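Q: I'm writing up a methods section and want to include an example of the input and output format. Could you take the sequence below and give the corresponding predicted structure tokens, formatted cleanly so I can copy it straight into the document?
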Amino acid sequence: MRMIYRLHLSFAFLLLCILAITAVLIHPLLLDTLVDSQRKELRDQASWLMNLSPVMPLTSVQQTDALKNSNTTTWPGNTSAILIAPGEKVVYSTLTGEATTELMELSKQSPTGSGEIWQRTNDQYIVETLTSDQDSDLHWQGVTAVMAAPLSKIKAMQLALFERLMIILSVGGVVSFLLSMLITRRLVKPLEELRKELHKVKKRRFSEVRLIETGGEIGEVAKAVYDLASELEKYQRTQKQFFQNTSHELKTPLMSIQGYAEGIKDGIFTGDHANKGLDVIVKESERLKKIVTELILLGKLESEAGIFHLDHVPVRELIAETLERINPLLVKNRLRVEFNGLGSEQEHSIYVDREKVLQALINIMGNAARYAKETIRIQTSANAEGIAIRITDDGEGIPEPLLSQLFERFAKGKNGETGLGLAISRAIVERCRGRISAHNEPDSGAAFVLHFPACF
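A: Here is the clean output for your methods example:
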């Protein structure tokens, strides 16, 4: 079953449970409340009846008639009342003789009358008894008022109130359910759309994945899926480009080797031409070996975790060893190196794999040596974020079309070799928790910046 239907059924079941529990609790509560209210009203009526001052003594029958006929108030038609004087003398009653006697007997059994129910053949009655105190008028001292009201009227009122309350709750429940359907649809619809986009990811149709516009946590997940599809699309495109470049780079030397080898075998190249062909075969074989070696190294740097051995390495020692390794190339190209940066009063270190970062620096320095005219500058700096190593040259700079893909595999300039050196450098720096970037200087030349977290 789809999630939207499960949510609708769950919310409907919850509403039904709430209505059932409310009905079970409210129904008896309404009766108790109405009965208590009726009892209070009976006591008020008894008090009013007993405080009514007669104009004649209670012993006179005419006084009883005068009380009945008093136009000071209208007596409620659904309430029965009895006034009993001392000596069990009934001075006022709204009931028949038999009913009056029955109600008097009930009041004797429970003088307070609290909580009594008078059971008659046709109905049940709520009974309340009130006796006047000693401070009352002389004629009313010791008089007892017994009041009774039919319970059927209370139950009818209870049923009417209960029906109205349940109608109100039912209408509220229906409105709540409709609102929940609207909210659930707005909640589930982005999930349904997100499922479709994930299906595209499953089918490797990364370029077709679109961003689902919604808010909250679902919006964050949708943005993450969209970014993931973009990264996978970029990775897939990079892999295709890598295989194309690899086949091209390997195909060229292999064609040279095959051509010269077949020429020598068939006797086309002889003497000096054969020796020259053999030299080409050797040089191209070395080039193939270097490309394959660097490809294997790059694959290990990007996938294997156990080949990095991190340690605290002083920055000045790392740069000094790099210059020592690259010195023959600097002498050959008649280049000078200017070094500025961290002073000797404090030794700054970075937590890296010494040999691999040294290889990355040699690759970058070798790249600078191929394009520099006279000078290579190395500058180091430290701040709260880490240590930066900046290498610049005074060459012509990096062509703009190449700048955005400089650290990709087989990306190289006109004097480049395999196009893997900078890709290897980036993999090393990033695996050592650092980052590398390149840009052109405002005046001239290219600049490479390596940034590592500091460990003072």
